[in-house]
Write a structure and sequence with these properties.
By secondary structure, the chain is mostly helical. It has 15 helices and no strands. Helix 4 packs across helix 8 and helix 4 packs across helix 11. 25% of the residues are buried.
């Protein structure tokens, strides 16, 4: 009797269990999918809200900005804010200065950080781990703590109020966050198979030729990531240009923001005044972030693929 009951229970389990498992799997899949979308929506909201606020406010008049009934959509689109911001920032000259600094420093870091990263990843020499520890240490130390000796050094070299403090260190795998770029290259080169170098060595290629003809062409994902990172970091940098650049005609785009009202008063004969104008400030900020946004729109797919291949996520 007991055996018959057990047999019937097993038969019922065989008929019910597959449906229960399928339902459970679908429920878990749906739950994790909803959770993932919820997290992505929250992250997108956190990043997009400041952009929406900046864009909306930059198109407002002062009356719309102080009106509590107007929050997102202005009653009149005031394009004059962009005209005043463009002229007050001397945007054309500041854009040229930023491009010169950003492109030259980025080119130097992409090349020399690749060489340094390759040396730390594949080379064997005394003190390699100690030197890489110093690279990590330079990544941890804030630049504000060493700005005084750097300023004295650049002053003795007559580099103050020139672009050399941003360009020359970049060609020695240093400069703005150069240690991070070196670490990215090191991690990428460490993931490549050693058989590539063995085959190159058998064919008679030396270390330099192996790096330039074999390893560097394979490092395109790391090159894309470091190029975009370095370019955007140098474009948005405010602290170092503020310390090393003195004349307004040499200021970068972010640096021109602090003398916006001074420039406007010079243009209008003092009619701009010193009253804080949030829509005008937001229009100037929009002009600052516009080039990196355009760059990201055109390189988004390559950037995402390169981030995944270099192992920066996960």
């Amino acid at each position: 009797m007991a055996t018959d009951i057990q047999v019937q229970a097993q038969q019922i389990r065989r008929r019910v269990a597959p449906w229960v498992l399928v339902y459970r799997r679908k429920s878990e899949h749906l739950f994790f999918k909803l959770l993932m979308y919820l997290m992505l929506i929250n992250i997108a909201f956190a990043f997009l809200l400041p952009i929406f606020y900046m864009t909306s406010t930059s198109l407002m008049t002062i009356q719309d900005y102080v009106d509590p009934a107007v929050y997102w959509i202005p009653t009149v689109f005031n394009w004059e804010n962009f005209t005043l911001a463009y002229g007050g920032m001397n945007y054309t000259q500041a854009f040229k200065n930023s491009i010169i600094i950003a492109l030259a420093a980025t080119l130097g870091q992409v090349i020399t950080c690749a060489m340094a990263g390759y040396g730390f990843a594949r080379g064997e020499f005394p003190g390699r781990e100690l030197l890489f520890g110093l690279v990590l240490f330079s990544f941890i130390v804030p630049p504000q703590t060493i700005i005084v000796p750097l300023f004295i050094l650049y002053k003795n070299l007559n580099w103050i109020d020139t672009f050399w403090p941003f360009i020359i260190p970049a060609f020695f795998a240093q400069g703005l966050r150069g240690s991070i770029l070196t670490i990215i290259y090191r991690q990428f080169f460490r993931g490549l198979p050693w058989e590539l170098e063995d085959a190159a060595r058998i064919d008679g290629a030396g270390p330099v030729r192996t790096f330039t003809h074999i390893m560097l062409p394979l490092a395109k994902p790391a090159i894309v990531v470091t190029f975009l990172f370095s370019l955007v970091w140098h474009w948005n940098d405010f602290y170092e240009p503020m310390m090393y650049l003195m004349k307004p005609e040499r200021f970068t785009v972010p640096l021109r923001l602090q003398i916006l009202y001074t420039s406007l008063n010079e243009m209008t004969g003092g009619q701009a005044g010193e009253l804080y104008n949030e829509p005008l400030i937001m229009a100037a900020c929009f002009l600052i972030v516009l080039p990196p946004l355009i760059l990201y729109l055109f390189t988004q797919r390559h950037f995402v693929e390169s981030v995944e291949r270099t192992g920066l996520v996960g």
